[in-house]
Amino acid sequence: MIDSWFITGFTDGEGCFYIGIVKSSSRISDYSFQVCFTINLHEKDRAILETIQNYFGVGSIYKEGAQTIQYKVQTIKDLAIIIEHFW
């Protein structure tokens, strides 16, 4: 089991929360907001992201570029779990 303080410190260095504004592809003037928690790492560090994902029990890991992978949490329900950890 991974230590919760490790996740907190690791996220401080490698992770972020962000809010993005996304233009709708179906309408000219409509925009939506995307709220997200991410950690990006080199693909050789996949085991770290898998451990963090298992700790929280939410989110997905995606390939993001040539050698980068990303742990991403996007739904409000799942983000509540992440936020509770840092609260």
Could you explain the architecture of this structure?
The protein has about 90 residues and is α+β, with helices and mostly antiparallel strands. It has a single domain, classed as Endonuclease I-creI, CATH 3.10.28.10. It has three helices and four strands. It has helices at about 5-15, 45-55, 75-85, and strands at about 15-25, 30-40, 60-65, 70-75. A four-stranded antiparallel sheet has the order 1-2-4-3. Strand 3 and strand 4 form a beta hairpin. The longest helix is centred in the first third of the chain and has 11 residues, at about 5-15. The relative contact order is 0.19.
What's a concise summary of this model?
This protein is an alpha+beta fold.
How is this fold's topology laid out?
Layout: H1 4-14, E1 15-23, E2 31-42, H2 46-56, E3 60-63, E4 68-73, H3 76-86
Antiparallel strand pairs: 1-2, 2-4, 3-4
Query: How many strands, what sense, and barrel or not for the largest sheet?
Result: 4 strands, antiparallel
Q: Give the low-pLDDT segments.
A: none
Q: How far is the first residue's CA from the last residue's CA?
A: 20 Å
Shape summary = globular
| Series of secondary-structure elements, N-terminal to C-terminal | HEEHEEH
Count all strands and give the number. Answer: 4
CATH superfamily: Homing endonucleases
Number of helices: 3
Beta-strand content estimate: 35-45%
Mean pLDDT: 91
The total tally of domains equals 1
Strand order of the largest sheet: 1-2-4-3
**Quaternary structure annotation:** single chain
